[in-house]
Amino acid sequence: MGAFVALLDALEEITHRISPFIAGGVLLGSIYWIAITYGAVTVMQVVGHREGLEMMESADPLVLLVLLPTIPVTLISAKMYNWEDSVLLFLRKYCAKIPALAYILPFGNVEGDRGAIISGQQNNTNQNGNSHLSPTRIFCSALLLPTISTIIGKIFFRSVQNNLHRTILGGLTYITIKGALKIYHKQMLYIRHSSRKILDYTESNLKLYRSAMASSATDAVSSTNDSEQVI
Fold first, then answer.
1. Which of 19, 68, 104, 190 could bond to 39 as cystine, CB 3.0-4.6 Å?
2. How many CA atoms are closer than 13 Å to the CA of 121, on its beta-carbon side?
3. Burial of 198 (0-12, 13-18, 19+ CB in 10 A)
4. Burial group, residue 46, by CB count within 10 angstroms (0-12, 13-18, 19+)
């Protein structure tokens, strides 16, 4: 076909080989600049728009190119650590016998072997990478943390004049309340799971199960009729 066609074939082969690397470089560069933009917006949101701009204008550009992308990475990495489980295990181990704490966080009458089995199952789940949490949930909640902290700080800590201090207080308040609710929810699930029993497949247990199902269905129908009457 001639030397010119051979040259075109070689160029086509080279283009086919280097295209994935170019696409990967463009993708990584886009992610890097998105991280820089998010870091700059977060700095202006947390510190204040004018104060953030002045701080970034006075800083070394090379330092900004290195530090700003670490902000979203740090937020996502911190979100992946499930500190609520550590606090809950500490409360179960050392604070379960405190009477005053039982009114706030019920511990229930969980038998030793049964509680150990349930705790072992929960620990295995946590060691497997928090399978109950989706990556998208971790990503969104981590990146929305500065915005939520700023909003809570402006609502509940208006007397604080410093924007950074106000945002930190709002973030700590949000993390503490959310963590307390998650600890309470996990403890109630722990009590419910550890209280379950497996019944034998007997006629008496079948009658008990069927009567419970019939009563629950009757309650559901009656509640539906009451709601319709109210409407």
1. 68
2. 10
3. exposed
4. buried
In terms of Cα–Cα distance, which of 223, 196, 184 is closest to 91?
A: 184
CB atoms within 10 A of CB 166: 22
Tokens found for residue 106? 């019920």
Phi and psi torsions of 61, nearest 5°: -60, -35
Per-residue pLDDT of the chain (231 residues; tens, 9 = 90+): 788 888 989 999 999 999 999 999 999 999 999 999 999 999 999 998 899 999 999 989 999 999 999 999 999 999 988 899 889 888 888 887 777 777 778 776 655 555 555 555 555 555 444 446 688 989 999 999 999 999 999 999 999 889 999 999 999 999 999 999 999 999 888 888 887 878 888 988 888 888 888 887 776 666 655 555 544
Residue with tokens 């034998």: 200
Cα dihedral 27, 31, 36, 41, rounded to 10, equals 130
Give CA–CA dist 10/36, Å, rounded: 39
Start-to-end CA span in the chain (Å): 84
